[in-house]
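Sequence in, structure out. Go.
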Amino acid sequence: MRELTQTEAIDLVGRFEAGQEIPERMRSDVRMLGALLGRVLRESGTPGLYEDVERLRVATIQAYTDETPEAFARAEAIADSFDLQRAHEVARAFTAYFHLVNLAEETQRVRVLRERDGRPDKEDATDSIAAAYMHLAREVGDDTALQRLQNLRFHPVFTAHPTEARRRAISTSIRRLAALLTEHEASLRNGADQRRAERRMLEEIDTLWRTAPLRPEKPAPTDEVRAVMAVFDETLYTAVPHVYRRVDDALQGPAAGGRAPIVKPFVRIGSWVGGDRDGNPFVTASVTRKAAGIASEHILRGLESTTLRIGRTLTVDATTTPPSDALVALWQRLRGSDEEAAADVAKRSPDEPHRRVLLMIARKIAATRTRDADLAYRDPEHLLADLRTVQGSLVQAGAPRQAYGHLQQLLWQVETYGFHLAELEVRQHSAVHAKVLAELESGPRPADGYSEQAEEVLDVFRAIAYVQERFGPRAAGRYIVSFTQSSQDLANVHRLARYAVGPEGVPPVLDVIPLFETFADLQAAPRILAEIVENPDFVARLAATDRRLEVMLGYSDSSKDVGPVAANLALYEAQAHIAAWAEEVGIELTLFHGRGGALGRGGGPANSAVLAQPPHSVDGRFKLTEQGEVIFARYGDPAIAMRHIDQVAAAVLLASSPSIEQRNRDAAERYADVAATMDTASRERFFSLVKAPGFAPWFAQVTPMEEIGLLALGSRPARRGLSVESLEDLRAIPWVFAWTQARINLAGWFGLGSALEAVGDEELLRRAYGDWPLLRTLIDNVAMSLAKSDMRIARNYLDLGDRADLADLVMDEMLLTRSWVERVTGGSELLDNRPILQRAVKMRSPYVDALSLLQLRALRALRDTAAEGLPGDPDQQRLLLLSVNGVAAGLQNTG
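Output:
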């Protein structure tokens, strides 16, 4: 097939871009950023780089648009023609392009959010908390709706699971570019210096190009803690109180800010970073202590700075705003504990009593951070009491605007974050606990002490006690038991805690949380829970917490265990049974969803998933894990973070409305036979693949599973001592990541086609898709997963193995699933019913194809040398890892 002329190439690219129906401002951003990148490639790349990138770009667009074997072969030939150095540069260029496209898309999302009216009466009930509240009030009445709003809880938990392929240096560069892009838009609007803005963007893109895209070594756990702290500092610290404010503004209208808010803080942030030691030997008790200290340092610095800022601006005079008796008493108390500072503050604020008190409070927060025992606050409750004294005095003096303005947001920040910022959670495998207990109970303590593992396990409980004593009981205390398979697995945690402190010590306060992961464990969950709530340690804790209990559900391992379809159905059934049990025994249940970013790990839009849950399984409380690239996608930009929190919390509030609960209950009953048929058929199809003899080594051969372990994603090892003869100990993340990189995405869809085929009734399935939220969410997520796959590239990966039977099985199921998804959703192609997502996928696909072709080239070379018994070429390995990085940036939800 001949190469296109320059005119033909320009025309092809133009027609492709025009066909995506990109909003004009976003199209302009993409073109400008792409042009700036092109200029950088010409100036900073090796000679001819830009032309080679353009050749491959045009070829992959042509192959994507006409789908002929000749067009695909030509694109493949161009990718194979580069020498290794040029291939490295081309992979980096496409990766940089994805970073810029992602930035343009994020900027467009922010534009849309800012342009929205935001009035709840004009929004769909799932769009915002205020709209959801109005919908709920119509169903249950104002009083009940208000009570549910004030009991609302959204609890994201950030994890360090290694799916963020992007270096922090790259992320930081992109954030700088985001600010410059905003400045550039302002320069166009206001007629300011457009050239200056573009010059600065060019400089930043050049820096991005020159920054090494791959981490030289795996990050330490404390590096991961600091990376997550950047999200708190730059986004969540201010975004969360702004969400509360927006809801209160919408509900109170003109009265908002002039009287006490309706909204109570409903966000709690959790973190596994520095606490999750399941399979990560680098997370020690010492790391847990350090993680808590780093988080506390960040929040106390933030609270100190905010209090100082508000104090300096609260210049209301005593004559116009007289202090209350309580405020005068507080000033006397603060002055008595720090006379020199008080004298200086009084001198600078002689007739401004509220200002004086806030400035002294700021000093006490600083003393808390530096551990000055004479001045420090004992706990956040004492700080809240002082701030409420200031607020009450302002209200009494007739200054409600000052009381419920910035000061209220500070109160919300303290109520949300305390002195700990994120509630640090510990996770450990049940088998580790059993092994250590067996050692501890085997006889008297040996003269040379217990094993290193046993000492470390015990020291974790001492670390939890230290964190609770240092930063308050909310700072730590949730202890998750991976692979909970019996009530004894949960009771063991309290036994270990008593061993850790000795017969005279007091164990830390612990909320022990079971994690049910496999298909069998999900089915056994109600029985295990019924047994454990009779355990004396659990009885005491339930009594102390008004019978609150958390239960965690694992999406990843259940999906790897029985396939995505059966896992979703099993998770729904488990939630329904657990929720029914909890209601029967009078327990306030919080289900903790261990979701990943990729669809094979429970990913997809969280608000849709919430609204598809069984009755009483949400009840105004929703907790989930957020990890890897998802953390920065959802929380990296303030406007997007606020929108995400608003939407998910709206769904949480709405999920307990009578209409939603009745809809889900009726659908589950009406389509029970359909679910049973789908469950059986999907599991049979999944097992025919993963239980086939030799599947594990074949999987390692046809995907970059082994090579992904070389990518320095995170501190956690990619597997639990796996050999390629077994999948039992393979972590769900590389399982999903490897299939995603191979453009097969098998973990997100395999078995659905057979499940729908087994039902067979197209009209029935279309009705179910409209009426049954669980099926709708499943099919929509599968459609996205399939849209990001590519059958031609998938076939090339599968051909790396020598098992045509398994390759054909995968391809046949992919075709079957695509066909059924299109028929059930009523579209002519995937995602017809989700045009914005469809546009985003189509816009990226040819560029991802370019990186996939480079990855295939490297993988073939590595497989050939391995077949000859030779070590892998480091340059080929580097090309593969560069392409992994780029594909992750292009597909966005990788693990």
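Check: Residues 835-867 form the longest helix (33 residues). The two ends are 37 Å apart (CA to CA).
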